[in-house]
Amino acid sequence: MMGKQKWGVRFIVGYLLLLLILTVFAQVVTSFDPQAVGLSSILQPPNAVHLFGTDELGRDVLTRLLYGGRVSLAVGLAAMLISVVIGAGYGAVSGFVGGIIDRVMMRVLDTLISIPSILLMIGIQVLLPRNLVTVVLVIGLTSWMPIARLIRAEILSLKGEIFIQASAVVGASPLQLLTRHLLPQCLPTITVMSISGVSHAILAEATLSFLGLGIPPHEPSWGNMLTGVQNYLLSGVWWIALFPGLLITLTVLAVTFLGDILQDRFALPQLRKGGRAFGGSSINS
To answer: What is the number of structural domains in the chain?
Structure first.
């Protein structure tokens, strides 16, 4: 069983590394321009020149996948960092301070987490210009609530530990207790949550772009490559939907499985008890 798990980890890490290398060095892998319109090569099926075919504007699908991967992965990583920083900070302060402040902060959190995140993202995004920065901010600012809840629970369980009480006795300030003793103990949970956050952000970007609220159409991303493809599927143009959809699925699954493996490795009971961290506020809510 352990051997199968090791091979699974190697396969997942290998896939993610290969994807990262291909997207970073996209200009070496392909010679096509991801935004160049080719009216003479519209909707060509996969062939020797265009391995993944061309889209409705004659653009090479493989090239747009590679350059779009830069955008989708960048959104996933950047939005995850924002959500983890806000969520970990909010949850740590709430759990550490306790009392009336904790109760007020938790009621605010309960209110936010009860709203489906896709509605929050759409509601905020329609008020902002469509670009990479706003998409990252919208996803990051609507994804931190589950992290805050779990970090608060862990801080509450750690506050009564002997080493925390001993540190307070020898003169450690509240800030030192929080930053030097409590938060470092939460790093396994934060790591697993960060990985889950990447897959959530990639899927959220794809959803917003598919709805026409994410990355601008002229900039390739996996999400906006799926915009409008339903108009061509019935005509037999399957490749413009298959390849971006397949990459989104494989990448989200790979990141999710990696998070599950790390969760088991770190033996985090609070995550197993409550399900996946982002399950309660995912775009499926």
So the answer is: 1
| 88: containing domain | 2-37+46-281
Per the CB < 8 A criterion, the answer to whether 123 and 66 are in contact is no
CB count in 10 Å sphere of residue 177:
18
Q: Check: CB of residue 81 under 8 Å from CB of residue 140.
A: yes
pLDDT, tens digit, for every residue of 135-172?
Answer: 999 999 999 999 999 999 999 988 878 887 787 777 77
Q: Which of 269, 64, 252 is nearest to 157 (CA)?
A: 269
Tell me the CATH number at 113: 1.10.3720.10
Residues in Cβ contact with 156 at an 8 Å cutoff, skipping those fewer than 6 apart: 95, 98
- Residue-wise pLDDT for 216-266, tens only, equals 878 889 988 888 787 787 788 899 999 999 999 999 999 988 888 887 777
Neighbouring residues of 217: CB distance < 8 A, sequence distance ≥ 6: 224, 227
What are the counts of helices (DSSP H) followed by strands (DSSP E) for the chain?
Answer: 14, 0
Q: Are 280 and 238 in contact (CB under 8 A)?
A: no
Q: 42: which residues sit within 8 A by CB, 6+ positions away?
A: 54, 55, 56, 57, 58
